[in-house]
Amino acid sequence: MEFKISKEFIAQIEQLISENKEKELHDLLLDIHFADIAEIMDELDSHEASYIFNALDSEKTAEILLELDEDVREKILRNLSPKEIAEELDELSTDDAADIIAELSQEKKEQVISELEDVEHAKDIVDLLRYDEDSAGGLMAKELVKVNENWNVLTCVKEMRAQAENVTRVHSIYVVDDENRLKGRLSLKDLLTTSTKTPISEVYIPKVDYVKVDTENVEVARIMQKYDLEAIPVVDELGRLVGRITIDDIIDVIKEEADKDYQLAAGISQDVEADDSILELTKARLPWLVLALFGGFISVHVLGLYEPAMEIHPELFFFTPLIAAMAGNVGVQSSAIIVQGLANNALSGSLFNRLLKELSLSLLNGLILAILLIAGSYFLLNIDVKTGITVSLALLSVIIMASLIGTFIPIILDKYGVDPALATGPFITTSNDIMGIIIFFSIAKAILGF
Amino acid sequence: MEFKISKEFIAQIEQLISENKEKELHDLLLDIHFADIAEIMDELDSHEASYIFNALDSEKTAEILLELDEDVREKILRNLSPKEIAEELDELSTDDAADIIAELSQEKKEQVISELEDVEHAKDIVDLLRYDEDSAGGLMAKELVKVNENWNVLTCVKEMRAQAENVTRVHSIYVVDDENRLKGRLSLKDLLTTSTKTPISEVYIPKVDYVKVDTENVEVARIMQKYDLEAIPVVDELGRLVGRITIDDIIDVIKEEADKDYQLAAGISQDVEADDSILELTKARLPWLVLALFGGFISVHVLGLYEPAMEIHPELFFFTPLIAAMAGNVGVQSSAIIVQGLANNALSGSLFNRLLKELSLSLLNGLILAILLIAGSYFLLNIDVKTGITVSLALLSVIIMASLIGTFIPIILDKYGVDPALATGPFITTSNDIMGIIIFFSIAKAILGF
How many Å lie between the alpha carbon of A189 and the closest alpha carbon of chain B? Predict the structure, then answer.
């Protein structure tokens, strides 16, 4: 059922553009969903993308604008006059329009706003621009269906019909008092199943979940997921109903949050995509690499201190990368599990129990790996048993250390309000590398004596 | 507005349970949302959790069952008879009921099904159990609102009211023909804004997005996100309407998918949580560690081959962990960006362009890091310039190699239908470690000659 973009289809479009057949292009794209057209435009160069944009009707182009990759959208908007942009925004709901305006330069922003036709719409958009984009205010739309608690059902239905015209999806009908303070809600289901003569005060549900304008977006996402809500009303400091957040906006928040944790675990420090510029990618990647390099300097220095051991036990230096890598791997595993637990609010029990559990877990894993190491180094690498046992003991200690560090650094960071995902990735790997090498050589020195 | 679980509140509940005050407990929890009660029960021991469960009314307990952690739910269900479980399931929608039944043993499953009161409901649940849990069939619910294209609006509204009683949220009204084949949809908004005298055939929208029962769940998620759908109908092989998937089920799919990528990147091979048993956690973590250990054996072996260099250039062995770590870090960064690009369908352009870009990017990063390395090893570590330049050249080469491997292994895996996220984490780290060491010593040998 989904439209699949084929190479042939793209070639056909490019052909039509090069032959300047605007009418044919318009007809070809007539039945294609705006999300698919946006995908096609993302694949084309900016001249071709602009050509398509100009060939289409404005209800469709407004939606396409929303779906485009940010850099493609930027290029399209650059080619449009403030008046043309305003015409696109007039087609969009307030939250989407505000998101696009927020991407414009300050000067163009003001020009576009002054060109908006619908004054109410313009006022709502300007209002939304005030809020931090990571807050409930930044997520919400002004479009919603609300009724006054003092109305009777007949007035309600009439008013709602008018309001529903502006709302893409009606999730809930909110009930407010004369001061616009949120009092409760009416469900659509009740509307379908209740006789039309019932007065509002008798049918509305006085218990309603809501968030405040300054609630953080991840918190909004958590609440909507937990209580399984498809929309949630937003109130201001005085409890007045100012907007509504729908579940589709929350999906983006959830995805971004998960992507961010993943990127941090991989040592990428800001939100980047494969198609971003080399400079942006470098800015996101280099800081962690520089950190890791300086961590590497420390390990070089530490190893230098043990140079005297080289003559008697050169094999220790062959095992160093193995020990360091295992320390890094174990640390990343432990921290990833904790970071996810923290993100999903799924950590229960005391710190002491967690310590015990992590200790047992790393002991079990460490013992198995230590036995494999003794066997492997004896049979595969022809290392003598005494050295094998020494390295294995070191491995076991290093694994326990790494899993404890991996477990508790995220918990501590979280306690102090720092994003625990920071602790995964290069930070844990690097510090565990260094600690691993120190522990390894200390144990080796104690057993083998050099 | 959200209920916050405090330690005092939990203590109060434990107190009431120990004093066997069921009535007081019931009243205390009366106004608390089932999702919050489930969270409280997750914190308590299984005896206390069962006590709470028994003290509550059955509409609430059914919803609580759904929200509980899987292991807590398992314990509660173990204490219930098939008849009691069936009573809980009678309160739930078909998809949720099927999910819970699927967790039971084969024997108990059949007993519970035979105890279900509502025969239609039971039939629907049994039908849902047939589908793979990762397919559209496994996600969908049987509850939906549908009307026949041949009805008039009056019949429709009457029928819909009856149907809506069973549906928690009405997203769309689906239109079917006499054979139950999906023909289109009616939007609720149209319902609110159209005169009640209009015939169905005139108002329904013949274009409707749908998925097939065997569509993969991640594909369903992608389609619903792309087309911004809050619900999507599911049809069987003959195009007959068999169910409906709502956006809240899709959120779980999106989260699970993102969590899975993150876990793979951290070297955890199956879906585990911090609160799982030590055995389960070991099963998820040990395989990658064993793989990394064997990778480590290779690096020990390779380093052993270069033992002769030790006498003249011991410092090379001090730098080995640094080179290996940098190779691992760069590889993980590159692969993470590609894996996310693949997951979000956001990779455009040819393979050749991607190669060029990754080459330039790693050259830029590598050069900066190489200069830092020369400076750092000269000023901080007192390494002579020639060795410093040798190590830096090796670092530059290793970074280029690591970023190319990190970029193209996920792309190749994806081409052959393997989850590209597998390539991040220990797999890339380990292979880059080994490759890094080989490149490092080859370059050192060429320049320093040993």
Answer: 7
